[in-house]
Amino acid sequence: MMGCCVLPNEYTFSAVLPICGGIGVVCNGEQVHCLILKHGFVLDLFVGSALVDMYGKCGNMRLAMKVFDEMPERNLVSWNSMINVFLGNKMYGDAVGVFKEVVGVKCVGMNEVTFSSVLSACGNLGGLDIGRQVHGLVLKYGLVSFGYVKNSVMGMYVKCGFLEDAYKLFRTIEDRDVVTWNVIAMGCVQKGKFREACKFFWDMRCEGISPGEASFSTVLHAAASIAALEQGSMVHNQVIKTGFGCNLRTVNSLINMYAKCGCLADGYRVFDECEGKNVVTWTTMISAFQQHGCAYQAIELFKNMLDEGIKPCYITFVSILSACSHTGRVDEGFYYFNSMSEQHNINPGHQHYACMVDLLCRAGRLGEAKNFVQSMPIEPGASVWGALLGACNRFGNLEMGVEVAKRLFEIEPDNPGNYVLLSNIYTRNGRVKEASEVRRLMEGQRVNKKTGYSWIYFKNK
């Protein structure tokens, strides 16, 4: 159009700026910004709002704020754009701050978009007090009838950990949509109420609501968490019926569910039939093999993934290093560990270092493991020291065990497992008095070891 000497207007710029934001390439947006200045549309309200949105979506909050601050006039669209870009860039406190400014501007009202955005920010902040105040304003402005505003209020209560408040609101909603059901089911999962989450899924189906990707992901996670194979299998039937069998997020959840329920073969069948696997799909299956003690299959699958040209992620390496640890493949484990930074540009984290310590410890090389910990470029965390303490317990290394346990008592003084391991090390070395002292220390610190328990699934319960 520019090549044909057709001059753009405010509608042109309002249309093309969201495209620049959508592809996230800020240089294109800056070129359009220059044209806006050149053609004199910088004062247009909708063009200014689109500029704010574009810079925000490109992650350049400095320019987004600069454009917003320089706008001579602002309307509700402008304010909403600013709240949304803060929200999109996870600057939740700033989003709430802009909302407070909007409340103070009497000539600017607030609509359902404003409230939906700020409620999401409150939820992510865990700001229940401000969230309740916003809920009050929703009622005051008469916007409670908007379905997605109700869903946003529910989502805020769920994210803040107040599931009962979300329940109360849920019961008042007559025109529930799939998002309403998803929000309440996700809240149940977050609170560990997995059976309730499954029930909400089936209640939703009874009301004739078609589940979506988030619905399946939530209910499959719930079924996996309580190893409810029968529930998971019935959900799998629903996945096939509703045409979500090719949805990658759903496929990944199915693989995980079958693995957690002990049906590795079914999980692999879902994996094998999946087309267009992404790194999450491969990693989920590798983790499933590793968790079931099939370390050889996990390593072979990892090699197949690399042959397919799929770039591994942080979690992939946690699984593969753990697999090497459980099969005593020390050299291979170090090869994969070193390849993280050298070949895949991934900086090893605490979990990877913990796997390497465990790898050396399982091979009986405790001295090397300790030297490895001391040479770490990052501060060793509880998982790293915990792996070393577990090895000291297995091999009865008293001197090193006492030293490591003292470090763990400083890092996580409320973890009963560390005290129990040290007590066991003393007992194994015939130091009963010292073991008793550790137990008394636990009592003095009011650290209690929780009783273990197991799940079984019997007669649909």
TrEMBL record:
<feature type="repeat" description="PPR">
    <location>
        <begin position="44"/>
        <end position="78"/>
    </location>
</feature>
<dbReference type="Pfam" id="PF01535">
    <property type="entry name" value="PPR"/>
</dbReference>
<dbReference type="Pfam" id="PF20431">
    <property type="entry name" value="E_motif"/>
</dbReference>
<dbReference type="Pfam" id="PF13041">
    <property type="entry name" value="PPR_2"/>
</dbReference>
<dbReference type="InterPro" id="IPR002885">
    <property type="entry name" value="PPR_rpt"/>
</dbReference>
<dbReference type="GO" id="GO:0003729">
    <property type="term" value="F:mRNA binding"/>
</dbReference>
<dbReference type="InterPro" id="IPR046960">
    <property type="entry name" value="PPR_At4g14850-like_plant"/>
</dbReference>
<keyword id="KW-0677">Repeat</keyword>
<dbReference type="InterPro" id="IPR011990">
    <property type="entry name" value="TPR-like_helical_dom_sf"/>
</dbReference>
<feature type="repeat" description="PPR">
    <location>
        <begin position="278"/>
        <end position="312"/>
    </location>
</feature>
<feature type="repeat" description="PPR">
    <location>
        <begin position="177"/>
        <end position="211"/>
    </location>
</feature>
<protein>
    <submittedName>
        <fullName>Pentatricopeptide repeat-containing protein</fullName>
    </submittedName>
</protein>
<dbReference type="GO" id="GO:0009451">
    <property type="term" value="P:RNA modification"/>
</dbReference>
<dbReference type="InterPro" id="IPR046848">
    <property type="entry name" value="E_motif"/>
</dbReference>
